[in-house]
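Deliverable D2.4 — example input (structure tokens):
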């Protein structure tokens, strides 16, 4: 700034400096992007694009299908929890060929690692059940906005358990997203379905927040497993964890479905489902496929790129889900909910900026 002050007044020279500064940043970003592109083969970028598309399409589709299930006559929370993990063999089918391609062997299952997978599987089963209750009582747009609070809990649990760094931008993101959740709570009368009671709506709100908190805990514990027990990061190791956790979650959820007799109840639900049996089973099948594709996409993005890009895609899929729910499911969208959506998106931006800040510990 000193040469600018010497060559003229500050009020005259500062405006000309702003475009130069912005252009310099854009140019530097373009240079870094070009260098990053050249360092990776074209197959890497194709996989990254496909993985990103899977996140942005499959996860919103899974959320909408859960709401479609309840809107058209489905009632079981255990069934929706079960279809969320019933597709775990899809991930296993992708895992096994990686041993041949990468010329690696399966990670040895120690007692601690196996116990960790069992705990994560149990927590994942509980998390899916909480979200099932949320989608039973809340519009898909509202449920997806509330679920974005998992970012807040991921940051907090990551700080407490994994000793991840917190900076001003991340703390600001926590505050902003919490404010967005408060806005939705104040607007509860505008988006409640007519067949949902006040008590059910409140419980849907509570289960969504609790599910988001548990999701954040699962994310931090998964990272802790990598740091403390696995000690190395590669694609097949990430897939191994996903397969094992999903397998145990599938076992726990299947036990819950059997105990609640919901497998027998599927026949009655299919007969009374709007659109008939074929529509009923198509909703469940596509829910299973879309959820697993979303999980695979997120795992691949984390491996091929970074948690920052995964955060960006998560930030994008929240408004995508809300907008799709309004268009396809005729979800109510009030002014306060739009404000909450904008505030949530801003909170994601703060978190991404804080996560990518050079001051953040690279670990």
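Example output (designed residues):
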């Amino acid at each position: 700034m000193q040469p600018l002050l010497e060559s003229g007044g500050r009020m005259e020279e500062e405006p000309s400096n702003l475009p130069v500064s912005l252009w310099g940043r854009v140019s530097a970003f373009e240079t870094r992007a070009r260098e990053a592109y050249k360092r990776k083969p074209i197959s890497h970028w194709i996989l990254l694009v496909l993985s990103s598309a899977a996140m942005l399409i499959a996860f919103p589709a899974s959320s909408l299908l859960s709401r479609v299930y309840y809107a058209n006559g489905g009632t079981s929370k255990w069934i929706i929890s079960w279809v969320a993990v019933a597709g775990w063999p899809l991930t296993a089918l992708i895992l096994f060929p990686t041993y041949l391609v990468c010329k690696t062997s399966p990670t040895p299952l120690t007692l601690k690692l196996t116990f960790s997978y069992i705990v994560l599987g149990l927590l994942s089963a509980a998390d899916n059940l909480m979200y099932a209750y949320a989608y039973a009582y809340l519009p898909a747009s509202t449920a997806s906005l509330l679920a974005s609070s998992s970012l807040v809990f991921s940051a907090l649990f990551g700080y407490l358990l994994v000793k991840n760094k917190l900076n001003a931008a991340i703390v600001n993101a926590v505050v902003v997203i919490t404010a967005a959740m408060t806005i939705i709570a104040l607007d509860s009368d505008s988006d409640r379905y007519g067949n949902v009671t006040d008590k059910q709506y409140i419980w849907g709100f509570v289960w969504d927040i609790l599910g988001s908190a548990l999701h954040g805990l699962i994310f931090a514990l998964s990272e802790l497993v990598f740091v403390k027990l696995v000690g190395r990061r590669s694609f097949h190791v990430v897939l191994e964890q996903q397969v094992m956790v999903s397998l145990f979650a599938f076992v726990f959820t299947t036990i819950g479905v059997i105990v609640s007799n919901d497998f027998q109840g599927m026949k009655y639900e299919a007969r009374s489902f709007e659109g008939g049996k074929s529509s009923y089973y198509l909703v469940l099948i596509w829910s299973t496929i879309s959820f697993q594709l979303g999980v695979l996409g997120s795992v691949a993005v984390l491996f091929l790129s970074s948690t920052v890009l995964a955060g960006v895609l998560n930030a994008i899929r929240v408004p995508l889900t809300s907008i799709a729910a309004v268009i396809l499911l005729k979800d109510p969208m009030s002014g306060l909910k739009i404000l909450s959506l904008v505030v949530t998106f801003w909170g994601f931006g703060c978190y991404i900026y804080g996560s990518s800040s050079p001051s953040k510990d690279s670990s």
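The chain has 15 helices and no strands.
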